[in-house]
Design a protein that fits this description.
The complex is a heterodimer of chains A (66) and B (259). By secondary structure, chain A is mostly beta strands. Chain A has one helix and five strands; from the N terminus they run ββαβββ. Chain A has a single domain, classed as Ubiquitin-like (UB roll), CATH 3.10.20.30. Chain B has a single domain, classed as Aldolase class I (TIM Barrel). Classes of the chains: A mainly beta (66), B alpha/beta (259). Strand 5 of chain A pairs antiparallel with strand 4 of chain B.
Chain lengths: 66, 259
């Protein structure tokens, strides 16, 4: 199924968790946060939150700024 | 001075009154040198997509230096975007402190006061310690304080412009009324700008570009540290009033060979 991850189309298996999506885009999940359809998914819920067709996932981390 | 005159924000004490940003440095090693030279204890980072800016080695630098991280909401144009970014930062970095930025357009990067006030209210209600980047508008600053912001951070001039403090009168008006720390944020170009901010009565300054894009970031960081300390001391000391004419500092009595 197709979802959008950080603005780009992303192919993933049915039943994929948020943790699975994070693992697909970064090897270092420390200091990372996730929004699913503009709602924060707390780190504790990553494994139990399942993504659905056409979901929008944002995976953010801290970078230089300000 | 730091032991006896800490900066206190939301009950937390800081020995340094210089808050740093991390944007604009050419490398992490230059950043680490500059942050160390600045003596800062609180430093901002931005939140971005993991594939856009590389992995967060800026966090490694802050961790090594023992500097508290202050996430910002840079790049947000609406209250909704800023609130979501703050919540993401809280989850990623395990801090409920946020430098709230809600800008109106990319050309000026000036704060959008309507969206800013809205976002500040939502975040305060959600338990955040909100440090809003605001216009040099005494009325807006007071409204943000009344909303429950832990500090107000008026700009000296537009972000990254190096134009210094364009309206020192307004900064003084903000300082006079504020009961939370006033942190001069944005536009500082060199050490004298930072000293002026402190002489005007600001409790701290927040700067990035003036250091990170200086020819020698670590030298400018050192200069800024001294300028903030000097300006603070001058403020506490109480400057002399300005006079129209000279006032002799040597006595007139006892001059030899008069007449």
């Amino acid at each position: 199924m197709k979802i959008t991850v950080n603005g780009a189309e992303h192919e993933t298996d049915e039943g994929c968790s948020v943790a699975g999506v994070v693992a697909a885009v970064t090897a270092q999940p420390a200091g990372v946060a996730v929004a699913l359809n503009d709602q924060v998914v707390p780190r504790a819920d990553w494994k139990t939150t399942i993504v659905c067709e056409a979901d929008r996932v944002e995976v953010l981390t801290a970078v230089q700024g300000g | 001075m730091p032991e006896t005159d800490p900066l206190v924000i939301a009950g937390e004490s800081f020995g340094s009154r210089l808050i740093m940003g991390t944007g604009g440095v050419p490398s992490m090693s230059v950043l680490e040198e500059a942050l160390t030279a600045s003596g800062t204890e609180l430093t901002t980072v931005a939140m971005r997509r993991v594939d856009a800016g590389g992995r967060g080695s800026v966090l490694d630098v802050l961790g090594r230096c023992g500097i508290r991280v202050l996430p910002n909401t840079a790049g947000c144009f609406t209250a909704g975007e800023a609130v979501l970014t703050a919540k993401l930062a809280r989850d990623a970095l395990e801090t409920n402190w946020v430098k709230l930025e809600v800008i109106a357009d990319e050309r000026t990067l000036l704060p959008d006061p309507i969206e800013l006030a809205d976002a500040a209210e939502q975040l305060v209600d959600d338990g955040f310690v909100v440090l809003p980047y605001t216009n040099d508008d005494p009325v807006l600053a007071r409204r943000l304080e009344q909303t429950g912001c832990a500090a107000v951070m008026p700009l000296g001039s537009p972000i990254g412009s190096g134009l210094g403090i364009r309206n020192p009168h307004n900064i003084e008006l903000i300082v006079e009324r504020a009961e939370v720390p006033v942190i001069l944020d944005a536009g500082l170009g060199t050490a004298s700008d930072a000293a002026l901010a402190m002489e005007l009565g600001c409790d701290a300054v927040l700067l990035a570009t003036a250091v990170t894009r200086a020819q020698s970031p670590s030298l400018m960081a050192t200069a800024m540290r001294h300028a903030v300390e000097a300006g603070r001391l001058a403020r506490l000391a109480g400057r002399i009033p300005k006079r129209r004419y000279a006032q002799a500092s040597s006595p007139w009595q006892g001059l030899s060979s008069r007449g």
